[in-house]
Design goal:
The structure is a single chain. The protein is mainly alpha-helical and 310 residues long. The chain folds into two domains: 42 residues, no CATH class; 241 residues, Orthogonal Bundle (MetI-like fold). The protein contains 14 helices and no strands. Helix 2 crosses helix 14, helix 4 runs parallel beside helix 8 and helix 8 packs antiparallel against helix 11. It is flat and about 70 Å long. The termini are far apart. InterPro entries: ABC_transporter_permease, MetI-like, MetI-like_sf.
Amino acid sequence: MTLAPPTGRSGPSPATRPRPPRVLRNLNAKIASVPMILTALVVFMGGTAWTVAHSFTKSRLLPKWKFVGFDQYERLWSSNRWLISVENLLIYGLCSLVLTMAIGFTLAALLDRKIRFEGAFRTIFLYPFALSFVVTGLAWQWILNPDFGIQNVVRGWGWESFAFDPLNNPETVIFGVLIAGLWQGSGFVMVIMLAGLRGIDEDIWKAARVDGIGVTKTYVRVIIPMMRPVFVTALVIIASGIIKLYDLVVAQTNGGPGISSEVPAKYVINYMFEAQNLGQGFAASTMMLLSVIIILVPWAYLEFGGKKRG
């Protein structure tokens, strides 16, 4: 008796079917990523290389390939204006990193206690982030104005000797800018921290209470180490805002009094578009790029290299 051939589809099973070469796997996704890769290579990498190359030239109003070596960098680091810009950025950056993280985490920890009207408080704290830096700078320029700002209000209450005028004092003007930056950025960091806290398992809090561990100690020894990726994300966002600090300074002080509140981004813009000295502007922007690389490369090595070694 002859057996009939089996009906249905024939052929190798999925387990024994030959797999396509590695290059052809996820081909649609790879094709879709081509425009992004080309943009990154041509626009970002190409533009960066073009800027660095022209920082060694004597470009003025228009770029030109007349190399002068490190003359632009020597002129840059001998400029008092650039040195003040770097000093201001360091002061603003360190204070902003520490205070924004501390304020944002504190607000998030308070809201995480399931307080009443949490939604209203969250909206109030986050609202400044919805404003542009220009609006924030102009608003705090009025608030810190001694004629009709905080100083005038406190003196109206009877404290005639009260003095609070940071924007007109070269020694304290950068801290006046810092106040506006903290007011705008702390709410956004609070939201990031609150999302991280809401991701913590409730059983951890229950175990801490059973063991008799206090709330503060639980945050320091348990919660904060578990939120390390959240803190890294917040730090990267804050650091990118610090490097790009420009419009807040322009709106609030325009670099004054004198040049006491200058920052590197304003130095670059002024030399490239006002002084019409592209070579000097390119040199300053290259130094800003170098500072970012110096910070990010060790962090990336410790963050990803350590995981591979582990």
